Amino acid sequence: MKVAFRADATVFCNRPIDEWLPPLFGEGFFAFDRPAPGRMLSSWFLAAEPGCPAIAEWARAVYDYWSARETADDYFWFHRLFQSVCESNLRVARLWERVPKISADGPHRIQHLGMLSDAAATAPAVDRSTPCFKLTYRYDQAAAGPDCLLRRPIGLDDAPPRNEERPGEGAPARDPSDLASLSVSTENLGDHIQAQAGLELLARFGLSPRIALDRDFELRSAPGLDPERSHPILLNGWFKRDSPEWPPHPRLEPQERPAPLEPVGAARRPQQRDLRASTRSD
After folding, report:
1. 161 burial class (0-12, 13-18, 19+ CB within 10 angstroms)?
2. Nearest one of 137, 129, 108, 105 to 33, comparing CA atoms
3. What are the DSSP calls for 40-90, one per residue?
4. Please, what's the b/e burial string for 75-108 (b: 16 or more CB within 10 A of its CB; e: otherwise)?
5. Residues forming a β-bridge with 214
6. What is the DSSP letter of 258?
7. Cα(198)–Cα(51) distance, rounded to whole angstroms?
8. Please, what's the b/e burial string for 257-281 (b: 16 or more CB within 10 A of its CB; e: otherwise)?
9. Cα dihedral 59, 60, 62, 67 sign
């Protein structure tokens, strides 16, 4: 099965995708159903096969929408466009009708109960078989005590033991002096989750970058980089349009995976884009 995904940085994956998605993917498209009145689907998790007509028509509608404006006229414009596509395109409407419906209520349950609520009181109302949970960065981090509901899916109690065998363990660690990583200076929790996820993925292969470059302000200037050497970097994140720090420094070699960390060449550099302007969701 060939499938492409998009997921917000604040989506917590509670179950392996290959465990729950295949039975729902017979139409080559999936999204969680009806997050609120007036919205047919959620956009924080989307899956589609190559050439999916729903995605193709939706993308065309997005292009037309932004070709005549610089600002959105509605926070949920992206969702509204999908509804417009279904209303004007019978093929897409019937495709969406055939997609098995999984309510967005389950993934939103932690948000609705209150991420900072007392877990002893609210955790029993959370269905732990839910494939994923849509969280939010809009909360007071200082108030996230050890007994809050947010700690249940992502807290230390769920972390694997330090001595647990992990992929790549036992392999000789590469000298990380030429390895770079992203850092962020925003207040968006999702940005920090993306940066931390990249570091933890590299750690599974015994890699600990010594060079940290701010995603928004240092990718091009790259202070501390040795201009005579190539520096592998895991570029996971979202990169701003028209930034003087884009494209990245030519000695940075974007990686598709952390091992064996072979340079992949400039042809695979991420395209310049602004996801904030194309897939805003809640």
Report:
1. exposed
2. 105
3. EEEEEEEEE-TT-HHHHHHHHHHHHHHHT-SS-SSTTHHHHHHHHHHHH-H
4. ebebbbbbbebbeebeebeebbeebeebebebbb
5. 183
6. S
7. 29
8. ebbebeeeeeeebeeeeeeeeeebb
9. positive
CA 160 to chain centre: 22
Question: 155, 104 in Cβ contact below 8 A?
Answer: no
What's the 3-state SS for 80-132?
A: HHHHHHHHHCHHHHHHHHHCCCCECCCCCHHHHHCCCCEHHHHHHHCCCCCCE
Which of 59, 128, 131 has its CA nearest to residue 89? 59
Query: Which pair of structure tokens corresponds to residue 112?
Result: 């609705």
Going by C-alpha positions, the residue among 90, 78, 13 that lies closest to residue 41 is: 78
Per-residue pLDDT tens digits for 225-277:
888 888 999 887 777 656 788 888 999 988 754 433 333 333 333 333 333 33
> End-to-end alpha-carbon separation of the chain, Å?
28
What is the value of pTM for the model shown? 0.60
Q: Which residue has the tokens 């940075």?
A: 252
Best CA proximity match to 282, nearest among 104, 150, 153: 104
For the stretch 112-154, pLDDT in tens is 999 999 999 999 999 999 999 999 988 888 888 889 998 887 6
Nearest to 246 by CA among 268, 220, 227: 220
User: Of 100, 9, 4, which Cα lies nearest the Cα of 47?
Assistant: 4
Return the DSSP state at 271.
P
Pairing mode of beta strands 4-7, 180-183: unpaired
Nearest to 182 by CA among 213, 151, 227, 218: 213
CA distance 280 to 277: 7
